[in-house]
Amino acid sequence: MQWGFVSNTSWAVGHPMQSWFPRGALVLSSGDASAGNCGANTLDYYTLSVGGGGDADLNQLIPFYTTYDAAVLEFDVTAHKDGLLVFKYAFGSDEYTEWVGTAFNDVFGFFISPAGQSLSSTHNVALVKGTETQVSINNVNGASNQAMWNNNRKIEVGSNVKALEADGYTNLLNTKGYQVYANQTYHFKLAIADAGDRILDSWVWIGGETLLVDQQPVANDTNPTPNCATKVVTLDGTASYDPDKDDVLTYKWRLAAPCLPPVEASGVVAQVDLSKLADGATYSVTLTVTDDNDVEATKVSTLTVPTGCGAAVASTCGGGGGSGVAESPPPPSAYPGDSSSGSTTTGGEPPPSPPPPPKGFVDGAYTAGGAAVVPCGGAVTLTAGPADDAGLAELALNYDGATAGYPVYYIWQVYDILDPSYDAPIASQTLNAVTEVTFTADDLKQGRMLKKYRVLLDVTDVPVWDAGNGLVSEVVTFLQVLACPIQPANPPEVVTFDGASSPDAFTLACGAAVSLDAGAPFAAAAAKKNTTGSQSRILRWRIVTSDATTGTVVWGYDHSIPLGSTKFVSTVYGSALVDGGAIVAGEVYGIQLAVVIDGEEVDDDNWQTRISVESLTTQPQATQPQAAKPQAAQPHTTGLQAAQPNAYEPQATRASAIKS
């Protein structure tokens, strides 16, 4: 089950969310929602493989990625008054911390729009406070917005681990306020999905009782007047207020001038030492008032430091001692309808897209622990490093402290991350007194499907796994084995649309083709139409920008299937798509299918996937991952022929790009 409710009385003992959601919470997950209420961190790689498809709106948030296993809840709300609609939530994932900064960036979004209006990425209100950046694994972690995040990976935090399955989770967060009006109806969509792969679960907790219409506070201050006698200036925000009488306000002040370091203070009344301000300079003084739902208001005034009252403050522009003029107030939001405080979201131009996912780490050696990505045709070399310390110590202890004269074997085993039993390694190597091992693409069974593995190390005195006087290290290495582009072949490789779920995304190498098997979709469409004597049978293929559901069509073709034929396969040629100008090499597109029987079109969300054609340009190298902190180990316990003109692409491109 990918969604569920935790009541106020059913929180697991010690669960950190209980105090945040005392009346219970809705849980959505890309895998097992019930694990969102676990009272312990039981696994470093918790996964329930549900085999579901992605979500079009989430794809728009991260347009270079493919989403899977989406869980979506949609409903309508009618506002009872004007104000800013907000609610509280928290996000957690077992993608933390190994896969931060990689292409496996689980995502969620909370979308709000007026009822009847199409959703877009601009309607997402699950944003990092004060930005237009969505909350996700790559955006909120130990290196980015770390004040919002908690590490809960047992191998890294040890006894400080919380009673929660997620290896990392955010603080309690507020959505960005969305402007609503009394008696108007608004559509909500809450969605979460795996991104880049189908494994390692993520969760989002939502407090239903926290949904409310908040009033924006009002920021007011008195004109700041410096007192040269006491060498202070008093900043007074006591005239500020909040129409919601129960809201608690916080106050932050910022004094800024060109080429001078800013000065910050907090509190409804704050005093600033004039010796921190430049003599004769004019500062802009910005008061930001925030209520307990993170709805903000600002007020900007100016302060000129009288000559002789300030100090000689070094210029930040390299020009020596500083003085300046007032810094301009913050520019208005680029989003139509937004307040200057960034407190509302009503649509407009989309926020900047996140950068494309990394292309994979180059071949290289890694110290055991942490995570590494294996590119197509690549290899990974692991060095035991500190992971063998406990094993060597155990051997020395069993040999009465001797430092030589006994055998030492390094046994490496690679397991599918979905195999919790450790019974069937997909690769294994046993090395005598050699601390370094290399696994090739063939060893790791690299192919068109993306794979994720765990690598374990046994340091012992016999060449047998989990035997002898040594031990299996608790330091686990994670490998992500990237899928390879489909290579030229005769006959071409087949991608099957089985109708049950979307096929995995694929990339065509230079000169490669792919055969798209639409037998199952045609059978489903024929059953839905309830006919066996059709006169016209068409596979309607479309390639679209960004997302297979909502993108703009850049190429299309109607493949007519002869009556009596039982073959529903179309072959697409990647080079022809690029050479004809339909697509750009290296960019990701959606490809979708509709079945047309006697003029009646049938489609399905599972009849679509992502396609790209490999670019021949050199890809940038990615940074090597950091090794995980070693932990103590435990001893052993023993193109188509044209049937009719098509408006979506030139005739020459259509005829050469795809054929029956």
TrEMBL record:
Low complexity bias spans: 336-348, 617-638
Protein's name according to its UniProt entry: PKD/Chitinase domain-containing protein
Top-rank taxon, per record: Eukaryota
InterPro entries the UniProt entry points to: Choice_anch_L, Ig-like_fold
A family per Pfam: K319L-like_PKD
Recorded coiled-coil stretches: none
Residue spans of biased composition, Pro residues class: 349-359
